[in-house]
Amino acid sequence: MTIHDFDEARFFIGDIVEVSAFGQNVLPELAETGDFDAAVVLLRGRDGAVATITNNRRCVTGYDQRLEVHGSLGSAVMDNWRETTLSVNTKEASGVQQPYLDFFLQRYADAYSNELTAFIDAIINGTEVSPTVADGVAALVVAQAAEESAHSGRTVRLDA
What we know:
The chain has 160 residues and is α+β, with helices and mostly antiparallel strands. Helix 1 crosses helix 4. It has four helices and seven strands. A hairpin with a 4-residue loop joins strand 2 and strand 3. The chain is globular.
């Protein structure tokens, strides 16, 4: 369930070279499969930037997704289920947020439309799609390293 988060982390911090993951099981039926129902993953990019991903299959408050990016010029926060989830905070201003949106397709309708349009444009114009197959493979490599780390209790290096 975290594969999309790995792809997104790569977008922000570039090539990932180190993965540390911790998993837990709250749901006994999932523990029997060898998978986790909650995980925390720490990623280090080639240039030293880090990303932390917290994920949980069971969220009693609903489909909870948030993103925070912190840097030398400020931070950006994307929050839950709103018409727009972007809130930018700098020393000059802090953002105002819209009411929550409570339906998956309502929240992602524009994203799906934009993705489909970009894909069709790429086919018509013969241009490369983004993300690429290589991006998908890279996210899968990170996912496999996270699984290995969570099961072994050690950090996994990706030296590619």
